[in-house]
From TrEMBL:
PANTHER family: DNA-DIRECTED RNA POLYMERASE III, DNA-DIRECTED RNA POLYMERASE III SUBUNIT RPC7-LIKE
Bias-annotated ranges (Pro residues): 26-36
Keywords from the UniProt entry: Nucleus
Tagged with keyword Nucleus: yes
Lineage: Eukaryota, Metazoa, Chordata, Craniata, Vertebrata
Location (main, coarse): nucleus
Name of the molecule in the record: Uncharacterized protein
Highest taxon of the lineage: Eukaryota
Family statement drawn from the similarity comment of this UniProt entry: Belongs to the eukaryotic RPC7 RNA polymerase subunit family.
Originating organism: Otus sunia
Length: 80
């Protein structure tokens, strides 16, 4: 007959690996969720440099759409 391991199974998790020693106090439980981050939009950079970057981005996107590798989305089919 084949054996099923050696000795008794042991836990693979040790408290010392987490950084809590024997006898140390555990951290308090979390009773409420963490506060949400504000959902404010970041202000757009103004001035000549910001306008230049915006124009450059629009030109790059237009050039990418003109490439033969750009796949145009198909029209949605009815009945599927």
């Amino acid at each position: 007959m084949a054996g099923r391991g050696r000795g008794r199974g042991q836990m693979t998790f040790s408290v010392e690996a987490v950084g809590i020693g024997k006898g140390d106090a555990l951290p308090p439980p979390t009773l409420q969720p963490s506060p949400l981050f504000p959902h404010r939009a970041a202000p757009l950079p103004g001035g000549e440099e910001g306008e230049y970057m915006l124009a450059l981005k629009q030109e790059l996107r237009g050039a990418m759409k003109g490439l033969p590798y750009f796949v145009k989305p198909g029209a949605p089919r009815r009945g599927t």
